[in-house]
């Protein structure tokens, strides 16, 4: 049995039991109801199913137990880290693409430029081995081109783009991977960079950091419709629900109100209102007024 087949079976079991507790027979029925799973022959014996449960706990840190009273299996502990979840999600996407070939408009993709992901393997190698890299960089703002030689620190995702966090001379800067050309990994090692990326971006939204804004409590009021969406897909890991009724849904955040965050709020238009702090409220109000002037 191939590794691909085994991973696919694990993913199927996880996705089924995340919906609701089920018996072994119900899980097998759900698998058999999926044409792709049936084609891949993902049905298993109860003995294999028990082994799968142990392996899922070991690999994904998702603990599945059985309720002896109802004879149903359920997910007890789900501490799957973000790396494992992304690998699983990407595996499912790749499998869906494979399945859709030859079926016309089964999957509709957005038209977009390359994300620069072809550089990721080389940059990860350079980061892990502390090797200086050189590349041609095409700026977003003025379309100027410059040659950079930097010490790579980490790769960070933000709003469907990947960025290289690197020491450029005496400063740590962000470089969008899709703006990097002619990447060259040198043989020159650099000293460890004194930069904790998790601390630096912990209270930030997006990719902009290192600014003068201090992290503070932010309270936002969303319309019920938009609020339910934000509740299911939080703006920031600090998001906390503080009020929910028929008129509004409020969340609190501990975050730096940087340019990225302000632009995100503006994108919601009249579906969001800043409650506090007053400084952020005024900044958003000013931008909205400026936008209105453009239509006069």
Q: What is the fold's blueprint, element by element?
A:
Elements: H1 3-17, H2 24-33, H3 35-39, H4 46-60, E1 62-67, E2 72-78, H5 82-100, H6 120-129, E3 131-138, E4 145-158, E5 161-168, E6 171-176, E7 180-189, H7 197-201, E8 216-222, H8 224-232, E9 240-244, E10 249-255, H9 259-266, E11 272-276, H10 278-293
Antiparallel strand pairs: 1-2, 3-4, 3-7, 4-5, 5-6, 8-10, 8-11, 9-10
Protein name: Helix-turn-helix transcriptional regulator
Domain WCX: 216-292
Domain WYL: 119-183
How does this model look, in words?
The protein has 296 residues and is α+β, with helices and mostly antiparallel strands. The protein has three domains: 3-100, Arc Repressor Mutant, subunit A (Orthogonal Bundle), CATH 1.10.10; 117-195, SH3 type barrels; 216-293, 2-Layer Sandwich (Alpha-Beta Plaits). Helix content is 38%, strand content 28%. The protein has ten helices and eleven strands. Strands 6-5-4-3-7 form a five-stranded antiparallel sheet, with helices on one face. The longest helix is centred in the first third of the chain and has 19 residues, at 82-100. The radius of gyration is 24 Å and the shape is globular. The model has no long low-confidence stretch (mean pLDDT 86). This is Helix-turn-helix transcriptional regulator. Residues 119-183 form the WYL domain.
